[in-house]
Amino acid sequence: MPTSSENILFGMGNPLLDISAVVDKDFLDKYGLKPNDQILAEDKHKALFDEIVKKNKVEYHAGGSTQNSVKIAQWMIQKPHKVATFFGCIGKDHFGEILKKKAAEAHVDAHYYEQNEEPTGTCAACITGDNRSLVANLAAANCYKKEKHLDLDSNWELVEKAKVYYIAGFFLTVSPESILKVAKHASDNNKVFCMNLSAPFISQFFKEPLMKVMPYVDILFGNETEAATFAKEQGFETDDITEIAKKTQNLPKENKKRQRVVVFTQGKDDTVATVGEKVTMFPVLDIDQNDIVDTNGAGDAFVGGFLSELVQERSLEECIRAGHYAANVIIRRVGCTFPEKPDFH
C-alpha cells in the first residue's frame, strides 16, 4: 500500500485565527446571527470580535476551513510530518505570528503570502448548545494574489509535488484564478482535485467561478443544506439528496479518466456518496447526544479524515470511514481540536 510522503497533499484557502466561545441567545440576537450558520462579517459585526474576547472565555486555534482539513489529515496520518502544504494570505501582525506557530505545531507545511495592507483574518465561532454560528472576518485572507505567491517557482514546485489537491469553496471569493490554475494542473496530470461547496452562499453568489472550476473537480464534498442550495441554483428540480448527488456527478467533466465522486454529509444522518453508477448511504458512527460538545469543524474534520486515506490510495469506503471517525472525534471537543493521537484502525 502506498504510504504518505511530504507535501503529497496540497491545500489552499483562507487562513483564519479561530476564536471560539460559548455565548447566549442574546449575543446571537444582538448581532442578527442564526444559531447554525456561517457568514462573512459585515460592518455591524465588527464589534463582535472585541466583545466575544472581552466577555467570554475564548480559545484560539489555527483555522479556516481548508487549513482545518489538512491539519486533521496530518493528525490522522501522524508520520511523516508535513504531509500537507498549505497556501493562503495573512497579515504581518501578532495574530499572523500565532497562526504560523499553530500551523507549525500541527506539522502543516504552511507557506503564507504575508502582506501589510490587511490584518490576519479571524473567525468567531459563537457556540450555543449543539449549534455554532460562524462569523468570518477574512481581512488578509482576501488578499491572496496568484502572481505574488502561487506563480513563484519555489511555490509552484510544491504544487507540482502534490498528488491530491483540496480547496474549500470559500476560496472562490478570494482567488478563483489561483483555484483554476491548480485545478487544471491536477486535471492535466491525472491527479485528484477535490473541492467543497462550503456554504449555501457560495452556490448562490459565486455560481460563475464555482461552475468554471466544476469540470476539474474529481471529488466534491458538501452537506445536506449546501447540496439543496446547489441543486436549486442549478435547476435540478429535486430535493432528493441521492438524486442531487447523481446529477452533480453527471455535470460536465474535463479529465475523463476519473469519474466524479460526490460526497454529501448530513449531520447525524447517513453520508451519501456516488459509487460508480450508484449512490450509496454510509451510516455515521453512533454518538450520545450528551457527548456532542461543538459541531463546529465536523465538516472540515470529515474531509480531513477522508483525505488522510485518499493520499494513501485507499478505497472510497475507507476514506468515508476515516472521515466519519475524524468528525466523531472533533464534535466531542470545543473547536476543531483533537487528542494527541487518533485511534483509527
TrEMBL record:
Cofactor or coenzyme needed: Mg(2+)
EC number: 2.7.1.20
InterPro entries: Adenokinase (IPR001805), Carboh/pur_kinase_PfkB_CS (IPR002173), PfkB_dom (IPR011611), Ribokinase-like (IPR029056)
Residues at the active site: D300 (proton acceptor)
Listed GO biological process terms: adenosine salvage; AMP salvage; purine nucleobase metabolic process
GO CC annotations on file: cytosol; nucleus
Entry note: cofactor: Binds 3 Mg(2+) ions per subunit.
Pathway: Purine metabolism; AMP biosynthesis via salvage pathway; AMP from adenosine: step 1/1
Molecular function (Gene Ontology), one example: adenosine kinase activity
Catalytic activity as recorded in UniProt: adenosine + ATP = AMP + ADP + H(+)
Keywords: ATP-binding, Kinase, Magnesium, Nucleotide-binding, Nucleus, Purine salvage, Transferase
Localisation per UniProt entry: Nucleus
Carbohydrate kinase PfkB domain boundaries: 27-339
Family membership: Belongs to the carbohydrate kinase PfkB family.
Function: ATP dependent phosphorylation of adenosine and other related nucleoside analogs to monophosphate derivatives.
Assembly description: Monomer.
Protein name from the UniProt record: Adenosine kinase
Organism per entry: Myripristis murdjan
Source taxonomy: Eukaryota, Metazoa, Chordata, Craniata, Vertebrata
Gene assigned in the entry: ADK
